[in-house]
């Protein structure tokens, strides 16, 4: 559940929520890191739940010695009031037996906080795409019915494609197998989307097709696409890299190499 | 995915498990799942007087809670604090999971102690394995029994130095060493360096620290990074700087006799002499 870290609870009414799905390549989470780090967002609360594997550490967005020693938990909410933007960052895997409970927790929190819309940044295994999905940019979107009429035109203008329904068994054209929504490697993405449709939550999902590896470029791709839609950064200079990489991204692939190795 | 040579390999993600389509459960499946969940519950067994007190709504009055997670941390407390006869055994936790099998041996326990002359201090040694889904539950259940006002928490834990990420390669002479993490409410000065980016802490020490952070309880974790797997006297001694802080709340034996040390630290048995 949400616990405020400030003395008075924050008000999220009419804000936009951006959150990641723990999915292949951790792309959604890396993108959210870029957003919090670049916009210098301040933490306003914790999602204290038994659904995530416990972990903790010092401030991953530290910019100086003064703010380096601040403890952070597996799921936290950040806010940029001037942009009417709130961000939920999830840093730990969801305990498998609790994924349904976690989805319910998220959906009810989104509803009770009064967010005008929630955007889930997710990813899906690139190697499991069917022929249709291999066309165009590797980004797809999903919109729940309550967000459809408001946002679909904007997304179509950006030439984004809706996530295709795929047949259950590739190659078989059996009339009984209806094409269905399939997000392999997406974690709770599909479940969260279907739950939100059922509960009339205005939710959008952005899915990037990718593979495991160095997913930093994928994070930049996803966050740039998001920026094309939400205009979080208004940087007229068109610099390719306007996002700030946080210090916690150091040593993503291990420690320094022992010199004696060579 | 297909490789260059035309073979098809399964690809696994380090972030997510394979999707499990939600299958409709029948009654029997739901029943089995419920029973398994019950079996995996963390159970606290307190001494009769503590149980009585808790039942009548009085939580344990505690101003210092000292938790040792892992064999070296637990042995450190055993040698430097618990050797005198001045301690009451208050209770224990019993935990079943796939790794522990529920057998509480000398090697894997979770026990609570309190000094006879200072009932405001509580020590807990955890050497049993708690699985990921039991960490939060253990923390909530234990802290539910404690009076939170004016509570201070100190956690001693350990980890392998291979988990420690640093740009400069650590030569073996630098291990073992201590690093600390503390909650926002902690106002003291830790006895060692703070954990540098991009390192994180997991396990019971993380669950406890998260709980303290969210509930604004002053707490500090001292984690020892060691290059030795298993109990080791050098690793144990690395916790000595924490004595200066702990000494304020409990009577410590600053130089325990070698007999005690020998009893506590058994040399690792050689499993096989094939490569000697």
Description:
The complex is a heterodimer of chains A (262) and B (276). Chain A is of the alpha/beta class and 262 residues long. Helices cover 26% and strands 20% of the residues of chain A. Chain A contains six helices and ten strands. Chain A has helices at residues 27-38, 65-68, 99-113, 145-157, 189-198, 216-230, and strands at residues 2-4, 16-20, 42-47, 55-56, 75-80, 85-90, 117-125, 139-143, 161-162, 203-210. In chain A, strands 1-3-5-6-2-7-10-8-9 form a nine-stranded mixed sheet, sandwiched between helices. In chain A, helix 1 (27-38) packs across helix 6 (216-230) and helix 3 (99-113) crosses helix 5. The N and C termini of chain A lie far apart (51 Å). The mean pLDDT of chain A is 92. With 276 residues, chain B is of the alpha/beta class. Chain B is built from eight helices and nine strands. Classes of the chains: A alpha/beta (262), B alpha/beta (276). Chains A and B meet through strand 4 of A and helix 4, strand 8 and helix 5 of B.
Using only CA atoms, what is the Rg of chain A? 19 Å
- End-to-end separation of chain A in angstroms reads 51 Å
Query: Stretches of chain A where pLDDT falls below 50 for ≥5 residues?
Result: none
Integer average pLDDT of chain A: 92
Mean pLDDT of chain B: 85
What is the number of strand segments of chain B? Answer: 9
Structural class of chain B: alpha/beta
Radius of gyration of chain B: 21 Å
Question: How are the elements arranged and paired?
Answer:
The complex is a heterodimer of chains A (262) and B (276).
Chain A: E1 2-4, E2 16-20, H1 27-38, E3 42-47, E4 55-56, H2 65-68, E5 75-80, E6 85-90, H3 99-113, E7 117-125, E8 139-143, H4 145-157, E9 161-162, H5 189-198, E10 203-210, H6 216-230
Parallel strand pairs in A: 2-6, 2-7, 7-10, 8-9
Antiparallel strand pairs in A: 1-3, 3-5, 5-6, 8-10
Helix pairs in contact in A: 1-6, 3-5
Chain B: H1 27-39, E1 43-46, H2 48-55, E2 64-69, H3 71-80, E3 87-94, E4 110-115, E5 121-126, H4 132-144, E6 152-160, E7 177-182, E8 201-202, H5 204-214, E9 219-226, H6 233-237, H7 243-246, H8 258-264
Parallel strand pairs in B: 2-5, 2-6, 6-9
Antiparallel strand pairs in B: 1-3, 3-4, 4-5, 7-9
């Amino acid at each position: 559940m949400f616990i405020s870290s400030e003395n008075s609870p924050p008000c999220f009414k009419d804000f936009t929520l951006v959150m990641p799905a723990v999915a292949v390549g951790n792309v959604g989470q890396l993108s959210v890191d870029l957003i919090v780090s670049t916009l210098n967002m301040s933490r306003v609360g914790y999602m204290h739940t038994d659904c995530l594997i416990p972990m903790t550490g010092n401030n991953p967005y530290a910019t100086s010695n003064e703010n380096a020693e601040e403890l952070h938990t597996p799921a936290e909410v950040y806010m940029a009031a001037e942009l009417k933007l709130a961000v939920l960052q999830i840093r730990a895997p969801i305990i498998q037996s609790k994924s349904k409970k976690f989805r319910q927790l998220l959906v009810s929190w989104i509803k009770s906080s009064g967010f005008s819309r929630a955007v889930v940044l997710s990813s899906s295994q690139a190697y499991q795409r069917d022929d249709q999905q291999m066309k165009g940019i590797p980004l797809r979107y999903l919109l729940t019915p309550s967000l459809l009429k408001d946002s679909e035109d904007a997304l179509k203008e950006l030439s984004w494609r809706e996530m295709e329904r795929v047949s259950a068994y590739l190659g078989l054209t059996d009339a009984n197998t209806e094409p269905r929504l399939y997000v392999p490697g997406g974690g709770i993405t599909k479940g969260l989307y279907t739950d939100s449709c059922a509960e009339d939550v205005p939710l959008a999902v952005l899915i990037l097709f990718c593979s495991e590896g160095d997913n930093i470029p994928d994070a930049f791709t996803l966050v740039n696409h998001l920026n094309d839609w939400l205009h979080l950064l208004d940087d007229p200079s068109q610099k390719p890299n306007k996002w700030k990489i946080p210090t916690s991204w150091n040593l993503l692939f291990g420690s320094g190499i022992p010199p004696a190795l060579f | 995915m297909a490789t260059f040579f035309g073979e098809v390999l399964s690809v696994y993600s380090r972030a997510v498990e394979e999707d499990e389509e939600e299958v409709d459960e029948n009654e029997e499946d739901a029943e089995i799942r419920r029973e398994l969940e019950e079996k995996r519950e963390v159970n606290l067994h307190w001494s009769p007087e503590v149980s009585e007190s808790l039942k009548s709504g009085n939580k344990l009055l505690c101003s210092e809670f000292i938790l040792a997670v892992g064999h070296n941390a637990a042995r450190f407390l055993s040698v430097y604090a618990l050797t005198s006869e001045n301690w009451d055994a208050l209770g224990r936790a019993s935990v079943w999971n796939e790794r522990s099998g529920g057998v509480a041996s000398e090697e894997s326990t979770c026990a609570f102690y309190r000094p006879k002359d200072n009932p405001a201090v509580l020590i807990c040694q955890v050497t049993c394995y708690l699985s990921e889904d039991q960490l939060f539950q253990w923390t909530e259940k234990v802290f539910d029994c404690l009076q939170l006002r004016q509570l201070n928490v100190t956690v001693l834990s350990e980890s392998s130095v291979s988990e420690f990420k640093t740009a400069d390669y650590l030569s073996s002479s630098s291990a073992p060493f201590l690093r600390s993490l503390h909650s926002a409410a902690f106002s003291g000065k830790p006895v060692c360096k703070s954990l540098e980016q991009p390192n994180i802490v997991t396990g019971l020490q993380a669950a406890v620290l998260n709980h303290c952070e969210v509930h604004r309880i002053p707490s500090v974790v001292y984690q020892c990074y060691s290059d030795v797997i298993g109990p080791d006297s050098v690793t144990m001694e690395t916790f000595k700087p924490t004595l200066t802080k702990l000494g304020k709340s409990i009577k410590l034996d600053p130089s325990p006799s070698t007999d005690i040390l020998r009893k506590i630290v058994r040399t690792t048995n050689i499993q096989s002499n094939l490569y000697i």
